[in-house]
Amino acid sequence: MMTKKIPISIALFAVLLACSAVMTHAQQPYPKVEVFGGYSLEYLGLPSDQLDALKTALVDLGATSVSTSKWLKEGFATSFTYNVTKTLGIEGDVRWNRGNIVNTQIAGVAASVRYTDLPVLFGPRFAFRGNSAVTPFVHVLFGLDHASIGGSGSANGQSLSVGGPSSNGFGLAAGGGLDVKVSKVIAIRVVQADYYYSRVYSTNLNNFALAFGAVFRFGGK
Q1: What is the CA radius of gyration of the chain?
Q2: Strand pairing partners for 80?
Q3: CB–CB of 114/99 below 8 Å?
Q4: How far is CA 17 from the centre of its chain?
Q5: Which conformational region is residue 55 in: left (phi greater than 0), alpha (psi within -120 to 50 degrees), or beta?
Q6: Is the separation of the CB atoms in 95 and 36 below 8 Å?
Q7: Contact 186, 216 (CB under 8 A)
Q8: What's the pLDDT tens digit per position in 102-138?
Q9: Per-residue confidence (pLDDT) for residue 162, from 0 to 100
Q10: Is the CB of residue 189 less than 8 Å from the CB of residue 211?
């Protein structure tokens, strides 16, 4: 049985084609820098018994109405990520959230207790770039959490704000999100969801954070 010989030119072409495919796959472009900015919402993991005790104390002082909330609805989130490889990035993350955790009416005065949370975090981010249109990612971030408590009151057309104690402690965020490509430079972060642990005021808080916004991508490799 005769074996047909493949012309050397065809063999060389096949080898070059295979090498080209491997190099193209290895050199798929990805941004070197990604900058995110958008709206942030945080659910504060305050122990319910503490809020209940505060409500009881206010009622005992003569409050006619007391409402509490664990949602910090004012906020923004921003992050800077340097992509070391197609998958691994180093991320720096800053968030700011604020909200009234207590609102009350007492002795004709409308008063509120305000909580502000400012974490600064760093850590690895892992992106999955198998699809050029969408990029899911996960990250684990560590750093500093700065929390502060303040209050405000108003009566007879006059208002007063007072600052309260602040606390610095440990912060940890673990979660991920999904970016949808709009152009080479811009993507929309459809959602970013994180479990966020903070240790402030000698209390462990198991928080939850959401963020939405725009991602700006620079460079490419």
Answers
A1: 26
A2: 35, 92
A3: yes
A4: 43
A5: alpha
A6: no
A7: yes
A8: 999 988 889 899 999 999 999 999 999 988 899 999 9
A9: 83
A10: yes
Are the CB atoms for 91 and 141 separated by under 8 Å?
yes
Mean pLDDT, residues 133-157: 93
Name the one residue in this structure whose structure tokens are 């673990």. Answer: 174
Whether the CB-CB separation of 191 and 178 falls below 8 Å is answered with yes
Relative to beta strand 109-127, strand 88-106 is: antiparallel
Give the pLDDT band of residue 70 (cuts 50, 70, 90): very high
**Which stretches does DSSP call E strand in the chain?**
33-43, 63-68, 71-72, 74-83, 88-106, 109-127, 134-155, 158-181, 186-200, 203-218
Tell me if 146 sits within 8 A of 165, measured CB to CB: no
The two three-digit tokens of residue 88, written as one number = 């691994």
153-203 confidence digits (pLDDT tens): 887 777 778 888 999 999 999 999 999 999 999 999 999 999 999 999 999
CB neighbour list of residue 157: distance below 8 Å, 6 or more residues apart: none
